């Protein structure tokens, strides 16, 4: 095996030193080595890709759909996404100029932040939240300003937002992820309108990561783009609603002038997404069969959520019923303190159940555990039994 020339260690982008390996993956990989472990860790739907999507991919391959597509995605998929946004969320985006298909929502996050942030710029990030946002900001030489929402039921208040704006002069953007990973909390239309009223008088760009928008268990998802269409970038995709994480289909939607800048970054990064994967996503966004598959998965998630919330409550965890995504953010019983990483490690090693420490998701996550119920009911029941046995012992 070749060994890197030692002097090359000084040749890398210095911002790389500000980015650490994702602790979620590190913890999950370590725990996965334990024989017989039950995993409630990653946000990976346990359902198969819907048949309507599989068949669309197969037909694409049979039709030799194997050439470069437009960098922003096939016209068919962009049209399907445009129809989906209008039908589900009453958002109007032109398929030709205001939508770009990305390699999952992950690429959309990077492209959006890259187009906005220069070294020294600040980005507001309500926490606890998915750690990728802060990692990308750091990589770009920006500064992530974490806004702890744990004292307000994990919802950013307009007062806290205004305070942050008053205290920080170089804020360029705010990232809103809802329904939230890790809490499962979402925002009502009234709450989003209150935030929009604060942001309307600023030049901040809102990056709205709404990848879990179809997994709402009561009421209807509202996009903040409904209130701030001129300064919002909507991120979404097929990974969660279509159980298509491996197909890597996400998208960005924004006003045409903003999308021009985003598209420059996007096209340089990837050229274009995969043709069969894009073909598979079309019916997920724009067919009755695709929508019904999402509804069926959501119904199963809701049953799992209700079981897990009730079981954890009986075991002494502090847990509110999440209204979105497929995570429970459970507070450790008081007698176990707030060292969530130590508890999660002990649970994996002795209880053979692996969860993710809440502190991995930033300020406000200390003393919590994120548990994913994107797994079978049998696994959830076994996990609860093992957690109970460990606590009793």
TrEMBL record:
The opening ranks of the lineage are: Bacteria, Bacillati, Bacillota, Bacilli, Lactobacillales
PROSITE patterns, alphabetically? AA_TRANSFER_CLASS_1
UniProt cross-references to InterPro entries, sorted A to Z:
Aminotransferase_I/II_large, AspAT/PAT-like, NHTrfase_class1_PyrdxlP-BS, PyrdxlP-dep_Trfase, PyrdxlP-dep_Trfase_major, PyrdxlP-dep_Trfase_small
Q: PANTHER family this protein is in? A: AMINOTRANSFERASE, ASPARTATE AMINOTRANSFERASE
Q: Where is the Aminotransferase class I/classII large domain?
A: 37-387
Q: Which GO terms describe its molecular function?
A: pyridoxal phosphate binding; transaminase activity
Q: Which superkingdom does the taxonomy of this entry point to?
A: Bacteria
| A GO biological process held by the record | amino acid metabolic process
- EC number(s): the record gives 2.6.1.-
> What is the protein's given name?
Aminotransferase
UniProt keyword list: Aminotransferase, Pyridoxal phosphate, Transferase
* UniProt cofactor(s): pyridoxal 5'-phosphate
The Swiss-Prot or TrEMBL record describes its family as follows: Belongs to the class-I pyridoxal-phosphate-dependent aminotransferase family.
């Amino acid at each position: 095996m070749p060994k890197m020339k030692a002097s090359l260690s000084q040749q890398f982008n210095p911002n790389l030193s500000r980015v650490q390996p994702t602790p979620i993956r590190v913890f999950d990989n370590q725990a996965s080595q334990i024989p017989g472990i039950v995993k409630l860790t990653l946000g990976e739907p346990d359902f198969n890709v819907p048949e309507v999507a599989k068949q669309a991919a197969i037909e694409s391959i049979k039709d030799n759909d194997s050439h470069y597509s437009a960098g922003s995605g096939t016209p068919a998929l962009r049209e399907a996404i445009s129809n989906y946004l209008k039908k589900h969320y009453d958002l109007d985006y032109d398929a030709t100029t205001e939508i770009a298909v990305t390699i999952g929502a992950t690429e959309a996050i990077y492209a959006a932040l890259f187009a906005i942030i220069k070294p020294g710029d600040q980005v507001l990030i309500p926490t606890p939240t998915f750690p990728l946002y802060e990692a990308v900001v750091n990589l770009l030489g920006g500064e992530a300003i974490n806004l702890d929402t744990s004292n307000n039921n994990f919802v950013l208040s307009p007062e806290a937002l205004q305070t942050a704006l008053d205290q920080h002069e170089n804020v360029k953007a705010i990232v809103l992820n809802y329904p939230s990973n890790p809490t499962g909390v979402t925002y009502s239309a009234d709450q989003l309108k209150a935030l929009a009223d604060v942001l309307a008088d600023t030049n901040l760009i809102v990056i709205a990561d709404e990848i879990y928008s179809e997994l709402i268990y009561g009421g209807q998802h509202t996009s903040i783009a409904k209130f701030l269409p001129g300064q919002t970038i909507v991120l979404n995709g097929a990974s969660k609603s279509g159980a298509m994480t491996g197909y890597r289909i996400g998208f960005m939607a924004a006003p045409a002038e903003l999308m021009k800048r985003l598209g420059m970054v996007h096209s340089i990064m990837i050229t274009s997404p995969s043709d069969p994967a894009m073909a598979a996503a079309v019916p997920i966004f724009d067919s009755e069969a695709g929508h019904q598959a999402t509804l069926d998965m959501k119904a199963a998630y809701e049953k799992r959520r209700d079981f897990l919330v009730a079981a954890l409550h009986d075991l002494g965890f502090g847990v509110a019923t999440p209204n979105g995504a497929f995570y429970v953010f459970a507070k450790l019983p008081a007698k176990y303190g707030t060292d969530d990483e130590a508890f999660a490690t002990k649970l994996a090693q002795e209880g053979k159940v692996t969860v993710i420490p809440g502190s991995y998701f930033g300020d406000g996550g200390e003393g919590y555990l994120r548990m994913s119920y994107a797994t079978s009911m049998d696994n959830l029941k076994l996990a609860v039994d093992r957690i109970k046995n460990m606590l009793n012992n």
